[in-house]
Amino acid sequence: MPENQEVIEQPPSREIIAPGYTFGTVTDQISAVVLTKKTPIFWMACFSVGFGLLLLFLLAVATLLVKGIGIWGNRAPVMWAWDITNFVWWIGIGHAGTLISAILLLLNQSWRNSINRFAEAMTLFAVACAGMYPVLHLGRPWVLYWLFPYPNSMAIQPNFRSPLIWDVFAVSTYATVSLLFWFVGLLPDLGTLRDRTSSRFARFAYGILAMGWRGSARHWSVYETATLLLAGLATPLVLSVHTVVSFDFTIAIVPGWHSTFFPPYFVAGAIYSGFAMVLALAIPLRSVYGLQGLITDKHLDNSAKIMLATGLIVGYSYMLEAFTAWYSGDVFEAAAMWNRMTGPYAFAYWSLVTCNIVAPQVLWFKRVRSKPVLLFLASLVVLLGMWLERFVIIVSSLAQDFLPSSWGNFHATRWDWATYLGTIGLFLFLFFLFIRLLPMISIFEVRTLLPQAKVDEEVRS
Amino acid sequence: MPQIFHHSTNTFARITIFGAIFVIAFLAWAVVQLDRSAYVTRATQVREQPVPFSHAHHVGGLGLDCRYCHTAVETSSFANVPPTKTCMNCHSQIWNNSPTLEAVRASFRTGQSIPWTRVNDLPDFVYFNHSIHVDKGVGCETCHGRVDRMPLTWQSASLQMEWCLNCHRQPEKYLRPLPYITTMGYQPAGNQEEIGRRLMAEFNTPDTRMLTNCSTCHR
Amino acid sequence: MSDSQKDLDLAAVRGALGARLDGARGREYWRSLDELAATPEFREMIEREFPRQAIGWSEDEDPVEGRRNFLKLMGASLALAGLSACTRQPNEQIAPYIRQPEELIPGRPLFFATAATLSGVASGVLVESHEGRPTKIEGNPEHPATLGACDAFSQASVLQLYDPDRSQALTLNGEIESWGAFFGALREALALQKTKNGAGLRILTGTITSPTMASQLAAVQKLFPASKWHQWEPAGAHQERAGARLAFGQTFNTYYNLANANVVVSLDSDFLASGPASLRYARQFAARRRVSGGQTEMNRLYVAEPTPTPTGSKADHRLPLRSGQIELFAGALATALGVAQGPKSGANADIYKWVGPIASDLKKNKGACLVIAGEYQPPAVHALAHAMNAALDNVGKTVFYTDPIEANPVDQIASLQDLVKDLDAGAVDLLLIVGGNPAFDSPVELGMRDRLKKAKLRVRLGLYDDETSEVCQWQLPETHYLETWGDARAFDGTVTIQQPLIQPLYNGRSPLEVLQMLTEAPDARAYDIVRNYWAAQYAGAGFEAWWRRAVHDGVAAGTALALRTPSIQGANIRANAEEPRLGGTFEAIFRPDPTIYDGRFANNGWLQELPKPITKLTWDNAAIMSLGDAFRLGVKTADMVELTYQGWKLRAPVWVQPGQIDGAITLHLGYGRTRAGRVGTGFGFNPYGLRTSNALWSSVGLEARKTTGSYLFATTQNEHMLDSERHIIHSAGIEEFRKNPEVIQESAESPPRSLTLFPEWKYPGYAWGMAIDLNSCTGCGACVVACQAENNIAVVGKDQVRRGRAMHWLRVDSYYKGEPTKPEIYNQPVPCMQCENAPCELVCPVQATAHSSEGLNDMVYNRCVGTRYCSNNCPYKVRRFNFYLYSDFETPSLKLLHNPDVTVRSRGVMEKCTYCVQRINAAKIDAEKQSRQVRDGEIQTACQATCPTEAIIFGNVNDPNSRVSKMKAGPLNYSLLAELNTRPRTTYLAQLRNPNPEFEA
Which conformational region is residue A95 in: left (phi greater than 0), alpha (psi within -120 to 50 degrees), or beta? Predict the structure, then answer.
């Protein structure tokens, strides 16, 4: 089992689990959230918001399918706008979950144990939202299946040179692996819930999902191997998926897109926004459900540090972008950068710089990192900033490319808003269902963090 | 605590994991099959016609040449359905009061076309040109089958893109000498592929890369 | 094209042939078409009571909103099925002929010669007919006015033919009536007139050049001696006639031969893009500018004009002058040439600085130069031009005179005022209005709309139920020129016999037939009327042969009018014009609209959506003013101004136009229609509301002030300024080019082939390519409409154009270079470049756009899933996306319009130019059937075929002797954005200018 000695040396406030917990209390507190009969107002409120927006989403999609892409503001030359912006944004958010659950697992970062569960859930739902856009943005979504290679009566295959095909594979793989990883991770806790719930139906349901988990030594050993393997599988995906997504732009010749350092830039941005989302979710949740003991300030602190680090990479990328544009001496590249900074989208550009580079600098200060409220605000700012980043990269580059004769600016319509808010609704809807029905913190993994666990081992060794 | 599931459900759980794979595979296979089925392609299905015209009788029996009626086949993209006049050439003399031909006579009287139902019907985004195929040694039979054995006419080939490409990717397998274009039941005198290659040289058939350009059929 | 439509087509066939083979079976045939095309929609269309209730086909707003939404969606479901693969084909029908006409082979188009008329003057066209459906108009190479080219108006006239908004039924005060009923009423009225020699009979027509109609009117005159024939053509050649009368004492018809002109001076004449012979002039002019194969002689063009026009964009020296200053300029030039005695200097220094060099240039080219007076300039200017041409002894070399081509060249203003007098006197019992739209386009002070009501019985024969029909009791549906027999004269008098391509869709009658009703033989058919007239004219035997040839060729042999050499009446040539003082006010300049002319094409979606030359404005007109004036008024483009002229007021949106002269506001006529149809009603504003008979074309004293509100313009191009870094247009002075022929090549970089990582394509057979000669292109836009007609390109409406969703496969960009007040103007047609290293092909996930073995970027609509990635990655932005279901899949009459050889694209797919691949394939198949290669020039793309200046050349670049290869080999050839290494197959020939060296000094 992952163990972590220096944790114990640290002062109490900085521990990754508050003192005084026992195996029992941990299990009680976490499973209580699910097994309790009465639903808290907070949950009700958030869930109904999510559900309301979900209905809006359904309306928007229905309209889209009946009338066509024209209901959005997309136009020549800005053929991609909010659709792809939202896609990249959501996919990016997903990355934190995989990073936490997979990479930190392999790196023995045991503090991940108490946040990986809902982070993975977040990944899953974010990917679900992201997955909507590549489908919906098609002119003819009903022939989506032509993007997959399959034996067809037309005797033609997709164009494997197109980054969009790479996307199809990258994203679908990512979704599958994340789902597996998450579900496997759930098994022991599903077992626990099955055994603890009083309702007959719930026991049956959890029982089915637990797939006969009994927690025998054999189960555990198999389980350990499985998680490690999946972690190994998921780790490269953290890097590959957003790399491929960035290819959608780098492969194209559009000035402002055509650039070789997009992959690292995008991955960093993804993790950046991902951790922002983790904080944005964790901070309210832990205070509402009184989980400060499990999701301690230490967690927030670490996440904030990662945000800071990735944020700096992103900032560096912005500078590099501007520099290469100037240094390349390429007329169109330079013009694109200049338009971005001074053109019709200057406001979006400078506000994204503020949100992603200036604002996060406050995270240098311990005082800020230890104030959940400030962290919460900071992460919201970063989420907004990262959305703007994608918007500016996509729209401002397209709006003014090579021939001035065909320049044109994008204006969002009410349906652009509806679709975007709609996916946020879908996300909230799924996420709060998850909160209510499944343990948002991995019970058994948290137990391993307890001093008792360590003692136990010292005895054994 | 009581067991809520019987022990056997474990096995069941295991089975579902593998079962899923087979189920999905089967569904995929089924879809692919349906796509090529006669239901979708409408091949081999006899269509309802206003007059029960029998190619078997006219071609097989009387031995009329295809071009007696389908006059435009060598000059136009469209192998025209004959005008009522063509029918009346003979049927003003023979069977000139058979009830089955009333529709034809009525058409001739009133000047209203006979509303034939299309049998070989390509989608509107496919631009097929009869004249060039006929001119380059693709026999009527190659696509339309043994029309001389069709008492009521049906579409013999699937008319799907892969079917077209079979020939466009390797014409030598299908070409025949021009004298036999309208022949039914043509047998190559020797090795079809050799003959085909010879004919391709003779017709200077464009190379298959040109034959498989998208714009060769889609515009 | 959908198959249910194929049925309609086959059905329509018998119509056309019925029409061609005998003119007398119209209505019987009509019924049979009705029955043949036994589809409910079709019947609905026929039995529909009023056009207003017809199924819409192109809304001005968002095309999926509104009443027709439901139908659209139904159409969509079909269309979508049609365009996605592996769908089950529904049962479809074939309706064969009963007796197949021998010259027709189903599936192969036929071409017939006829003539389209504008303001009464003919331009010869060839009409492509698919199984009896006219689908496409081409120029008639045999015809002197078109020489095989075709203008936007003629191109779009085929859409007008099928316009579901056309007047579809004969109505009396809005109630449907039969022709019989009308005939009865008419006979009654005529009987009354007979008693008073027709004193109460008035006929109002446009300009008439048709000899047949002239003879009819003469016959009517004989029958009713006291009757009067009035004429009104809002955009007619009034000034030209007056000018001739002033110069020669009587009316003459003037035309030019630019092939012999080394130096051309245009006095506000847009001779390259407007006027009955503009196509011919443009071709001759361009031929004298083309620099190729060592030939480096160019003609030189001076243009003085208030508003930038296509002609102005070709000028080597363009002097912006107010319309009122042109006369001054003409006077000064005449003085400098010693033709007239006028001041040698004056307030306007520019003018006198200019005339010196121009005059000497003209003198150097005596007999090989030309001064062209603008058709909208006052008579004095025309007179001066005539005098100068005479003095420069151009007459008979570059200038030619004949008798007027009009049947009766009266002063139409006087004619109209005469009618008004009679109306006020209540002397008009029966007013027959043939064509035109006087209630809308007459001078404002005449208040024609109300005055017309003073006639007791008002009969209107019109293509549309429009503003004039509204004030007439009887509205008679007129036949379109493609539906009937007729004749008309071209610019030089050449007669074309117009023949019908299809039976009247809406049971209309032609003007000839209606006028015939006034004569002794009231029920003669158009065919007999025309044929009998010409039979009577034709002396001697062999008329049949002559007639057949005339109909077949579209040109009646020996009908061109004889040349005359009128003598100048020196006394009338004066150059002492005073420069009109503005005194704080503006000069109002009225011009027919570049795309909807005088308003007659307002309901034509193709022309409404055709971006107007230079401004690229669609669906609207505007108060075009200079930057300086805009600054003074404190307005910018799209602000509203209130224009006041002699008490008449008009609110109009501002358009700030570089190159516009200060102090002049240009207003294009034809907009502000109130009863044009669903397409044209309510767009723009109506300058006729300021236009008085004493100032038809320009007038000083227009007041303008900023007012509240702003306007939404729909333009297809927002950025016009050329920056120095992007080498989009390459140009050079001819001298510079003579010194260093490589000057263009040096400025145009082209990367080595090896720069791509992908293996190079091989093109074993043909390799199609195109060269576009910027030096020739006038930016008239005819190619855009030709492309639209050939390729079934949808009209999207103003709202969508405003959202940047116009669908034109071929666009003409316009750029300004130099100072904004008097910029050099460049036109650049941009079709798909058919790149060899195509960015679009790389990124399409489903291979919907793929490289052909002949170098085309094939676009497979039915494979496209609509990711739009290709468009993002296209540096030329020539790809167009169907954001909505733009194509019309349900209006029956518009189904007949579609080109059956091109897929009608449905919602959610990308589309673009493919070099008219349907024409390429047709030619290749024909060639292969004769086992030969496709000949150079055998394939003409739609844009190339219609281009008046032959600026577009298409052909096989694998053949070094093909015309296009030769062009591309020349020193002027360059690729747009070559630095991207896309290796476009479409390349450009740089623009050259030939400035007068004396101006540098």
Answer: alpha
Q: Read off the pLDDT of each residue in B36-49 and give the average, rounded to a whole number.
A: 86
C89: closest CA of chain A, how far (Å): 15
Give the confidence band of C443 by pLDDT, cuts at 50, 70, 90: very high
User: Which residue in chain A is spatially nearest to B161 when comparing CA positions?
Assistant: A154
Query: Distance between CA A90 and CA A95 in Å, rounded?
Result: 9
Nearest Cβ partner for A79 among C800, C815, C872: C872
Question: Distance from A140 to chain B by nearest Cα, in Å?
Answer: 16
H-run or E-run covering C7: helix C3-21
Ordered alpha helix ranges (H), C163-210: 179-195
Cα separation, C897 vs C774, whole angstroms: 32
pLDDT in tens, C615-650: 999 999 999 999 999 999 999 999 999 999 999 999
ipTM, two decimals, is 0.91
Question: Which residues of chain A does C845 touch, with a Cβ-Cβ cutoff of 8 Å?
Answer: 147, 158-159, 162, 164-165, 168
C32·B78 Cβ contact <8 A: no
Q: How confident is the model at residue C277 (pLDDT cuts 50, 70, 90)?
A: very high
pLDDT greater than 80 at residue C11: no
| Inter-chain touch B162–A150, beta carbons under 8 Å | no
Rg (Cα) of chain C, in Å, rounded?
28
pLDDT of residue A290: 84
**Residue A455 pLDDT level (bands cut at 50, 70, 90):** low
Residue A6 pLDDT grade (very low, low, confident, very high; cuts 50, 70, 90) = very low
- Contact residues for B6 (Cβ-Cβ < 8 A; gap 6+): none
Question: Exposure pattern of C551-581 as b/e (b: 16+ CB <10 Å)?
Answer: bebbbbeebbbeeeebebbeebbbbebeebe
- Report the length, in residues, of chain B: 219
- Residue in A66, A152, A156 nearest the CB of C73: A66
Give the pLDDT band of residue C609 (cuts 50, 70, 90): very high
Residues of A60-77 as b/e, b for ≥16 C-beta within 10 angstroms? bbeebeebbbbbbbbbbb
Chain B residues with CB-CB distance to A under 8 A? 1, 4-5, 9-10, 13, 28, 32, 35-36, 158, 160-162, 165
CA distance C832 to C811: 10
Contact in structure between C208 and C231 (CB atoms under 8 Å): yes
**What Rg do the C-alpha atoms of chain B give, in angstroms?**
25
Q: For all residues of chain C together, what is the average pLDDT?
A: 86
Nearest CB among C10, C863, C917 relative to B219 is that of C917
**B132–C88 CB contact, under 8 Å:** no
Q: Do B32 and A204 touch (CB under 8 A)?
A: no
* C725 and A CB contact within 8 Å: yes
Nearest partner of B46 among B156, B153, B151, B157, judged by Cα: B153
Q: What is the 3-state secondary structure (H, E, C) of C540-589?
A: CCCHHHHHHHHHHHCCCCCCCCCEECCCCCHHHCCCCCCCCCCCCCEEEE
pLDDT in tens, A13-71: 567 777 778 888 888 888 888 888 788 888 999 999 999 999 999 999 999 999 999 99
User: Residue C724: CB partners within 8 Å, gap ≥ 6?
Assistant: none
Please identify among residues 856-895 of chain C the ones whose CB lies closer than 8 Å to any CB of chain A.
863-869, 871-873, 875-877, 879-885
Who has greater pLDDT, C73 or C979? C979
Q: What is the pTM of this model?
A: 0.89
Q: Single out the residue of A275, A303, A282 nearest to residue A386, CA to CA.
A: A275
Write the single-letter amino acid at C69.
N
Residues β-bridged to residue C93: B117
Q: Residue C544: exposed, middle, or buried by beta-carbon count in 10 A (0-12, 13-18, 19+)?
A: exposed
What residues of chain C lie within 8 A of the CB of A408, using their CB?
718, 804
